[in-house]
């Protein structure tokens, strides 16, 4: 079968809760309909659907690319003081290349919830810079640091952003992400982003920030967002995407949108070819735990148990002591 020369690398499945409306089986059907050799899911701040997606995609004969659209705190993920709710989170798209990248993405997502959660699971630049191996970074959607800076007319900040991300990702693993959903000022932002990408020798890639599968599903998606924000579709101030273009477009539609930037289309295939995560589900994977120097695993387990015994039981009875020895032995 002749494959298409475009694949979607930015897509929100049903696991982007009350935001994405793409069901896994249905999106794979559409990917096969368009002869796409691969497809990515990049849900907001989570990888809840990663395994389900991986298994179903492999069965469908479509290469699964696991990814995530992360929320970046403008300052630190530890900032959780009043007033920050209105501070604009920055978005960045991460795609898994291999097992190391998968482990790094798991780490980032987990710490986003455990350390950075404040209305949304958030990471920050410092944390991201420590966990980029095995990942491909795309600069992000209209809410990315790049596009926020360009929208504000701050070219220097936009350049600083691109320089930072180019340096923290492995060579050739960072791309300027281009989207065209005919939003206000988007055409200008695309032109400026392309110009900066050329100046800084960063490749571009075309995506569509897919939230639903067909154009006619736009209204249903609007209703979903209204449920998320606890408002009604009659509210003119409610959260909305701004157009009916956030659907699973065909390769032909995407090529027409970026006819002047064909490399941005072919780079989707180049990225897909570099993403080759292999997950094994027929083997037992026990965690490898290395105790501190001078301890065996048994000795260290015993020490940890007794260290925490007094915290759980300030005055442990003989029955409790007997039980802990029974468990340890």
Features:
single chain; 329 residues; alpha/beta; TIM Barrel; 2 domains; globular
Q: What secondary-structure arrangement, pairings included, does this model have?
A:
Elements: H1 24-33, E1 38-44, H2 50-60, E2 63-72, E3 90-96, H3 99-114, E4 122-123, H4 125-129, E5 135-138, H5 145-151, H6 155-168, E6 174-178, H7 186-199, E7 204-206, H8 218-228, H9 251-257, H10 262-274, H11 297-312, H12 318-328
Helix pairs in contact: 1-2, 5-6
Concise description?
By secondary structure, the protein is α/β, with parallel strands linked by helices. The protein has 12 helices and 7 strands.
What report would you give on this structure?
- With 329 residues, this protein is α/β, with parallel strands linked by helices.
- It folds into two domains: 251 residues, Alpha-Beta Barrel (TIM Barrel), CATH 3.20.20.140; 32 residues.
- The protein has twelve helices and seven strands.
- Strands 1, 2, 3, 4, 5, 6 and 7 form a seven-stranded mixed sheet that branches.
- Helix 2 links the parallel strand 1 and strand 2.
- The longest helix has 16 residues.
- The mean pLDDT is 95.
CATH H-level homologous superfamily name of the largest domain: Metal-dependent hydrolases
Rounded radius of gyration (Å): 23 Å
Portion in strands: 5-15%
Helix content: 40-55%
For the sheet with most strands, the description reads: 7 strands, mixed
Number of helices: 12
- Unreliably modeled segments: none
Number of strands: 7
CATH hierarchy, class of the largest domain:
Alpha Beta
N- to C-terminal distance: 60 Å
Note the overall shape.
globular
* CATH architectural category of the largest domain: Alpha-Beta Barrel
Number of domains: 2
The CATH topology of the largest domain is TIM Barrel
* Order of SSEs: HEHEEHEHEHHEHEHHHHH
């Amino acid at each position: 079968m002749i494959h298409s020369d475009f694949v979607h690398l930015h897509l929100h499945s049903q696991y982007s809760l009350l935001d994405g409306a793409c069901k896994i089986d249905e999106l794979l059907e559409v990917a096969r309909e368009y002869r796409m050799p691969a497809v990515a899911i990049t849900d907001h701040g989570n990888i809840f659907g990663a395994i389900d997606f991986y298994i179903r995609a492999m069965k469908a004969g479509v290469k699964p690319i696991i990814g995530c659209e992360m929320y970046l705190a403008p300052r630190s993920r530890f900032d959780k003081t009043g007033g920050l709710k209105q501070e604009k989170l920055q978005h960045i798209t991460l795609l898994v290349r291999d097992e190391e990248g998968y482990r790094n993405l798991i780490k980032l997502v987990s710490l986003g919830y455990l350390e950075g959660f404040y209305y949304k699971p958030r990471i920050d630049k410092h944390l991201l810079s420590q966990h980029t191996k095995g990942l491909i970074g795309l600069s992000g959607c209209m809410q990315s640091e790049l596009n926020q800076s360009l929208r504000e007319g701050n070219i220097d900040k936009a350049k600083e952003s691109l320089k930072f991300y180019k340096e923290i990702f492995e060579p050739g693993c960072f791309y300027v992400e281009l989207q065209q959903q005919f939003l206000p000022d988007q055409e200008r932002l695309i032109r400026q982003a392309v110009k900066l990408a050329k100046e800084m020798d960063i490749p571009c890639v075309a995506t569509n920030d897919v939230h639903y599968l067909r154009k006619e599903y736009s209204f249903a998606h609007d209703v979903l967002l209204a449920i998320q924000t606890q408002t009604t579709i009659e509210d003119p101030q409610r959260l909305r995407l701004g157009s009916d273009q956030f659907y699973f477009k065909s390769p032909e539609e995407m090529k027409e949108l970026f006819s002047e930037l064909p490399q941005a289309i072919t780079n989707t295939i180049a990225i897909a070819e570099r993403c080759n995560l292999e997950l094994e589900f027929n083997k037992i994977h026990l965690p490898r735990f290395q105790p501190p120097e001078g301890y065996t695993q048994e000795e260290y387990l015993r020490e940890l148990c007794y260290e925490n015994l007094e915290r759980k039981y300030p005055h442990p009875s003989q029955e409790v002591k007997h039980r802990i020895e029974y468990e340890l032995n």
